[in-house]
């Protein structure tokens, strides 16, 4: 094998370096590959896509301002659009855990687009990754802008529709189960009666509240700091560049991005990703609560609560034949544990903002975008393979409700708290229902019977 023909020699400010012949990236990307063989994890397709959007938008703005020739500018736009489409994803090779702030990631995009643009021109004129593709830009303004754009698109296109679907499915179950009376529980012990539909309406409203919160949070993410350049001072920039490049981004995304209220605050901090991740953490906490409740309500089927049944999706044991576990709910819980851990990672990385920039942006980008994808995918599976197929066991619900000692609560206004407590304790000690003890004591009048009727307690 002729290994020499598999590589080409290129150079940068640090000297010569060998690069695979087929690679569209250049020396700075190759150095990052060699310096950071850490995880094998790359920034996701959604981020690479937004890098392409920014490079195409910048080239268009620079052409309009006479900074780029039409030949080079159009070639850069075509190459960038190919990046947007995903044609060159295999050449975006820098590890997530890379040099601070994402300089290597930005140069990966610059080098790939420059080489492809040079091909489009026909190599008659080489397109320079820094002078041409990165014109009017810096890693420090393009990276956080790309993250905000990718985050908004992922939320709008994937997570919000998934959350809306979950809310609607839970609300549908709430309506379906509203006639079903059952025992409520506090501290995992008997509580006063509740409708199964009321329980599910609580689940639905909780998810809807997060949906509205996330929708509202988009407003802050619409701020992108293109044109801030290195530290927000807009060095080497024509004044008309910023409105033009942001308008180009808006045209390509069909979303209302705008310049930040304060460019220096945007450059210095990861405020919006941190806030967004906090909302995802809250969503994870709520999903853990809801899925844990559903696991309890479906526990059994013979030795648990068994008030609802879940659709069976796969065998649950390698040793116990016929066992079926709440697999989808368990998977959801696991994902949510990961999300809660991810929030800590972003919070810690957010603390690394020093002076003019945050150098931990690559890990923040990976963590946030992965979290959105995880939650969107999980929620879709939760809806289709679990929530939509849940059924109520009305007989079991009725049995537990009739045996609940909390029915005694209805007697407090009639017999007083102390007398009612004595009746409840006697029922518990003798393993009898409240109704049986009242009958034995000669207290089961029509009025008392109505007082412990579950229908009157919901």
From TrEMBL:
Record domain Fumarase C C-terminal: where: 407-457
Q: Does the keyword Lyase apply?
A: yes
Listed A to Z, the keywords are:
Amino-acid biosynthesis, Lyase
What enzyme category does the UniProt record give? lyase
Coiled-coil residue windows: none
Quote the cellular component terms of the Gene Ontology held in the record: cytosol
Query: GO molecular function of the protein, one example?
Result: aspartate ammonia-lyase activity
Look up the domain of life of the source. Bacteria
EC number(s)? 4.2.1.2
Q: Where's the Fumarate lyase N-terminal domain?
A: 16-341
Q: Name one GO biological process term.
A: amino acid biosynthetic process
User: Entry's PANTHER family?
Assistant: ASPARTATE AMMONIA-LYASE (PTHR42696)
Question: NCBIfam families from the entry?
Answer: PRK12273.1
Protein's name in the database: Aspartate ammonia-lyase
Q: What is the lineage of its organism?
A: Bacteria, Bacillati, Bacillota, Clostridia, Eubacteriales
């Amino acid at each position: 094998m002729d290994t020499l023909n598999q590589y080409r020699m290129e150079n940068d400010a640090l000297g010569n370096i060998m690069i695979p012949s087929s690679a569209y990236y250049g020396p700075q990307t190759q150095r990052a590959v060699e310096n950071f063989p850490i995880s094998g994890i790359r920034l996701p397709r959604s981020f690479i896509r937004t890098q392409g959007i920014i490079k195409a938008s910048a080239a268009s703005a620079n052409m309009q301002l006479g900074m780029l020739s039409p030949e080079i500018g159009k070639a850069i736009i075509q190459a960038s659009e190919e990046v947007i489409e995903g044609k060159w994803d295999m050449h975006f090779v820098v590890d997530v855990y890379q040099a601070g702030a994402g300089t290597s990631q930005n140069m990966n995009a610059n080098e790939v687009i420059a080489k492809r643009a040079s091909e489009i021109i026909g190599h008659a004129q080489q397109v320079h990754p820094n002078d041409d593709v990165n014109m009017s830009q810096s890693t420090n303004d393009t990276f956080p802008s790309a993250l905000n754009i990718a985050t908004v698109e992922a939320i709008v296109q994937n997570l919000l529709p998934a959350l809306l679907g979950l809310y609607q499915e839970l609300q549908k179950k709430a309506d379906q189960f509203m006639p079903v009376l059952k025992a409520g529980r506090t501290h995992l012990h008997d509580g006063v009666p509740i409708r199964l539909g009321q329980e599910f309406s609580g689940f639905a409203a909780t998810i809807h509240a997060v949906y509205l919160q996330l929708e509202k949070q988009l407003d802050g993410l619409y701020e992108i700091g293109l044109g801030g350049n290195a530290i927000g001072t807009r060095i080497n920039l024509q004044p008309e560049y910023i409105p033009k490049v942001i308008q180009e981004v808006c045209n390509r995304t069909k979303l209302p991005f705008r310049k930040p209220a304060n460019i220096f605050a945007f450059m210095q901090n990861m405020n919006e990703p941190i806030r967004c991740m906090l909302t995802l953490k809250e969503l994870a906490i709520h999903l853990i609560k809801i899925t844990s409740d559903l696991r309890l309500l479906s526990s059994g089927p013979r030795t648990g609560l068994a008030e609802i049944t879940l659709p069976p999706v796969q065998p649950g044991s390698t040793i116990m034949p016929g066992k079926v576990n709440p697999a989808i709910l368990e998977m959801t819980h696991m994902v949510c544990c990961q999300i809660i851990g991810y929030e800590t990672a972003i919070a810690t990385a957010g603390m690394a903002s020093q002076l003019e920039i945050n150098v931990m942006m690559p890990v923040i980008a990976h963590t946030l975008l992965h979290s959105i994808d995880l939650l969107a995918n999980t929620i879709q599976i939760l809806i289709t393979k679990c929530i939509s197929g849940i059924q109520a066991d009305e007989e079991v619900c009725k049995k537990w409700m009739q045996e609940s000692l909390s029915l005694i609560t209805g007697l407090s206004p009639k017999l007083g708290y102390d007398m009612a407590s004595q009746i409840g304790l006697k029922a518990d000690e003798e393993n009898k229902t409240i109704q049986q003890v009242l009958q034995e004591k000669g207290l089961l009048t029509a009025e008392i019977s109505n007082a412990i009727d579950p229908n009157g307690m919901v």
